[in-house]
Amino acid sequence: REREREREARFSMTAGHLDEAIGKLDGLLIDMEQEAARQGLEMPSIKFDPDDPWAKERSPPPSYVGKVRCPKSGYLMTKPFESQCPMPEAFVKDNSYLRGMLKPVVKPVNQAPAQKASTSKAAKDDKATKAAPAGGVEDFAKVLFKVARVTSVECHPDSEKLYVCKLDIGGGETRQVVAGLQKHIPIDQLQGVLVVCVANLKKAKLAGTPSEAMILAAEFESGEGVAVKTLVPPEGAQPGDIVFLEGMQPAEKFTKKLSSTVWGGVGKSLKVKGGVAHFQDHAFCVPSGKISVPAPDGTTIK
Fold first, then answer.
1. Which portions of the sequence form the region Disordered (predicted)?
2. Are 208 and 243 in contact (CB under 8 A)?
3. Whether residues 154 and 276 fall in one domain
4. DSSP for 148-198?
5. Are 62 and 27 within one domain?
6. How confident is the prediction for the chain on average, in pLDDT?
């Protein structure tokens, strides 16, 4: 074993010396070629790589084939075969060549990721809402429409379109709602106002902020651009009043977490008729009267 160790040590030493010698030879050749180039002298054509121990064992190359050293990396290129070869770049002592190869998948540390088709829960729910077939009265009865009072309104810290609102929905219960009303309704026209909300939607996050309900509003074109108006409960309405359809009774129980498919079907049939919110041909009502909307007939409520 001791002899084997000595043999291995001598071999490693010899290999190390050989690598060092080859490196010095390469350096000497490069220096000679650079000096010749500076003096305008023509170097003799190189037919074989001096580092190739088997070069003399092969047949000599054709007259038009020769070795030309890359001035950037020192790599001996076989011309004309490597005239367009990118490999010399790989011998530069940095990672620029590898980064170039990986460019499609390498991203700077601080670069925001490219936007992709969203697979978030909120996006999936929105897709299901748009694809849902129109719902009937039995589906409307699953939706918990409630009168609520907006007790506070703040601009969302990360969005110029969103408000973060607090709603009193009756029974001592408060809900946080993220609403896209910032561009359309000033804070002083929303805070303290009675609105109608959907109170049993699944919780979602908008711009990273939890939203636990949805304020209903009508959106339409006006002379000044897009106008948005919230639904207006009648005089005498109170937070917690449940909305029902004219000529019908409110449901005794509601779905705890409304599916986006059911809500999508119901939402397709919410319209303004005669200044009153309707589901299909049925007016929105609370015990004190009908829910009005200051919007043109046919305007969609959402």
1. 40-63, 110-131
2. no
3. yes
4. EEEEEEEE-TT-SS-EEEEEE-STT-EEEEEES-TTTS-GGGTTT-EEEEE
5. no
6. 80
> In this structure, how many other beta carbons lie within 10 angstroms of the beta carbon of residue 243?
24
Q: Name 297's Cβ contacts closer than 8 Å, sequence gap at least 6.
A: 271, 272, 273, 274, 275
Amino acid at 156: H
- The structure tokens 């009303």 sit at 181
Distance of alpha carbon 223 from alpha carbon 245, whole angstroms: 32
Closest by CA position to 82, among listed 100, 65, 97: 65
Type of residue found at 294: P
Encoded amino acid at 203, one letter: K
Show the DSSP H helices in the chain as ranges.
Answer: 2-39, 96-101, 121-131, 137-140, 260-267
Whether residue 107 lies inside any domain: the answer is no
Please indicate, yes or no, whether residues 233 and 280 belong to a single structural domain of this protein: yes
Query: What pLDDT band is residue 29 in, cutting at 50, 70 and 90?
Result: low
Q: Are 89 and 73 a contacting pair, CB within 8 Å?
A: yes
Residue 261 has pLDDT above 80, yes or no: yes
Give the CA-trace dihedral at 213, 215, 216, 219, to 10 degrees: -130
Same domain, 158 and 244: yes
Domain that holds residue 3: 1-39
Residue 150: band (very low, low, confident or very high) from pLDDT cuts 50, 70, 90: very high
Pairing outcome for strands 145-155 and 194-198: antiparallel
Q: Report helix, strand or coil for 177.
A: strand
DSSP states of 270-291 as a string? EEEETTEEEETTEEEEETTEEP
- The token pair at 189 is 């026209």
77, 223: one domain: no
